[in-house]
Amino acid sequence: MSLPALRLRGLRKTFPKVVAVAGVDLDVAQGEVFGLLGPNGAGKTTTLEVIEGLTEADSGEIEILGLTWARNGREIRSRIGVQLQSTSLFNKITPRESLDLYGSYYPKRRSTEDLLKLVQLEEKADAYHITLSGGQQQRLALAMALVNDPELVFLDEPTTGLDPQARRGLWDVVRSMKAEGRTVVLTTHYMDEAEALCDRLAIMDHGKVIATGTPASLIADLAIPSVVELTFDGPAPEPGAFATDLGLAVERRADLWEIPTPDPKALLPRLLEAAETRAVPFQQVHIRRATLEDVFLHRTGRSLRE
Amino acid sequence: MEWRLYSRDRVAMFWTMAFPVILLLGFGTIFRDSGGPKLAVVRVAALAPGPQDAALDQALGDLQLKVVALSRAEAEARWARGETAAQLEPDGEGYRLRLNSYLMAQAGATAGLVNQAWLVAQARLSGAPEPRRIPLQVESPGRKRSANYASFLLPGLLGLNLVSMGLFSVGMVNVSYREKGKFRRLAVTPLPKWIFLLGQVLHRLTVTVVQAAILLLVGYLVFGIANQGSFLNLALIMALGTGCFMAFGFALSGFAETSEGYAAISNLVFFPLMMLSGVYFTLDSAPVWLQHVVAGMPLAPFLKALRAVFNDGAGLAGHGLGLGIVATWGLAAFLLAVKRFRWA
Fold it and tell me: Is the fold of A6-219 the same as that of A223-289?
């Protein structure tokens, strides 16, 4: 059972104007939740579409559950589950009918009742699709990705555009997929989501994987695992002389300064002293662990949300 | 599933099922008298009516013309309102006929009858033998029935349904499925694509059969129009038309990225077809070159064959060329559809 769920080597896909995927290598083990994290336009969705067989790669190898598209297309389709970035259903179809309908396309299927229960849509089972909330529609899309009891599930930005509560609900569904022993590959541009859900991550930017590892190891690999934040009551001023006094890089954000450091305890007294000298009008000091956001920032020099 | 969704879409149901029936009932009733509205001539009263006037009035009545006798002032007012097609007024020793240039078809026919009446009246006055007229008989090309407008219209509507089904339903569904990514969602399932397409085609066929059945039933019950030919021939022609126009829809859908774009393209094809192909009226007064062009388009020969079978009980033999034209269009559209078709 050491066969990887997914193996990519040298995957490339170029569109007329952009190189969407510029040579991606990935290995996803069976039973793990694997995340592709990156800003919009990093090539995450194209990578998924190539893997799912929706778009043809220019070059590179794809092995899914040890199978290839060229030889085992139908078998792959019947063993994977896919949730596209947007799933458009008919306005007047009910969740129960959607699941029955899509289930009928597969040789092996889970019962509709089961799936409805899994995504907590039992009460809405017979309501028209158009009457469902965004979160409910998205949960239905997840259930539809599970109709064939797949071994490998692909989720493309499953929580984009949802409110925090609906996102938590979806996270629970993803966790239950893992608990059932499925392999999950998901894309997201939310680092909290990646940290909360993923066993391992690949950070993508400009069509390339720039780092791979567990969320903890990616953060630990940063030489500066902590960040001290000074918040201001209003827009943050230019750090200028303060940074020179301190001898450290100070990142200016909208209403705060960020000072990455390997040793916050040693930094604090010096920092407070420098602030006193330069009369920096800060309101609060926070010390926080570095996040995946900092990892991305460190590796690319840009923020995830840019 | 398609069928169930379709039945929930009341608006679509109305347009595809009820609208053709309403058209048939409406136009069929308005033009119920086979020859259309009765011809009328406005007769401006002579200042001093003589025997010549009496003889002419009688002859006009014999020819089934409706005579509207008015004073000059009344007649002028009616003329000015545009309600008069032909106006007969005294002129010196004889008469003068004014024809309304906006209503030439009616006015021309009326003028012919008025002149005949005048010849008859002169003969009667002079005691000469009455001129003999050649008897007229109105009937459809295949002898069966006197031409009733509803029986002309019904096959036209059957054909129009096929065209709108192909262009609007099939084509539109394709474009919107592609646009909204429904095809992509299907593409990641193991469902073979040909099964999906076959399902689409069968669904449309079912709709067509139901539609046709409703129209035929209403036509029979309300207007007493029955299929005069064999139902097999009718079914064959309908099947050919369905195939041809569905292929049209598939082909056109390959040229549009969005639903809005498709609506424009399909209307561009639909309206000329509808207006020029003899759905509602014949084109026998159009220029000859246009008639040739129309005969080369798919809908006109299709309707001609359909009417021949349905109204006159003809066989298919005489319509080989026409049906060949339809089949050629269908095949060309099909090949184009295959070439242009894409899922995403």
Answer: no
CATH fold label, A223-289 = Alpha-Beta Plaits (3.30.70)
The residues spanned by each domain of chain A are: 6-219, 223-289
Q: Is A131 on the interface with B (CB under 8 A)?
A: no
User: What is the pairing mode between strands B94-99 and A251-252?
Assistant: unpaired
- How far apart, in whole angstroms, are the C-alpha atoms of residue B91 and residue B72? 12
Q: Detail the DSSP E strand segments found in chain B.
A: 40-44, 66-70, 86-91, 94-99
- Which chain A residue shows the shortest CA-CA distance from B9? A92
Instruction: Give yes or no for a contact between A198 and A266, defined as CB atoms under 8 angstroms apart.
Output: no
Q: Tens digit of pLDDT for each residue in A40-82?
A: 888 888 999 899 888 888 988 899 998 888 888 888 998 999 9
CA–CA dist A136, A208 (Å, integer)? 33
User: How close B177 comes to chain A (CA, Å)?
Assistant: 9
Window 39-78 of A, Cβ < 8 Å to B: 52-54, 74, 77-78
Closest-CA distance of chain B to residue A52, Å: 7
Asked if pLDDT for residue B28 goes beyond 70, the answer is no
ipTM of the complex: 0.74
Residues A169-194 have pLDDT tens digits of 889 989 999 999 999 999 988 888 88
Of B9, B182, B189, the CB nearest to A105: B189
Q: Nearest CA of chain B to the CA of A199: how many Å?
A: 26
pLDDT tens string B301-316? 888 888 888 877 777 7
Distance CA B311, CA B314 (A): 8
- Residue to substitute from B178, B184, B342, interface A, most A β-carbons within 10 A: B184
State which amino acid sits at residue B206. T
For range A107-114, the mean pLDDT: 88
Q: For residues A162 and A295, what is the distance between their CA atoms, to the nearest angstrom?
A: 25
Q: Which of B57, B56, B41 is nearest to B106 (CA)?
A: B41
Among 3.40.50.1820, 3.40.50.720, 3.40.50.300, 3.30.2010.30, name the CATH number for the domain at A6-219: 3.40.50.300
Minimum CA–CA partner of B344 in chain A: A54
Q: Which residues of B touch A106 (CB under 8 A)?
A: 189-190
Q: pLDDT for B210-233, tens place per residue?
A: 888 888 888 888 777 777 778 888
Candidate from B190, B191, B344 with C-beta closest to A54: B344
- Put simply, whether A87 touches B (Cβ < 8 Å) is yes
Give the pLDDT confidence score for residue B17 in this predicted structure: 67
* Tens of pLDDT, residues A264-275: 888 888 888 888
d(CA A69, CA A50): 10
Residue range B124-139: mean pLDDT, rounded = 77
Question: CA separation (Å) from A254 to A192, A208, B110, B152, B176?
Answer: 20, 29, 88, 76, 43
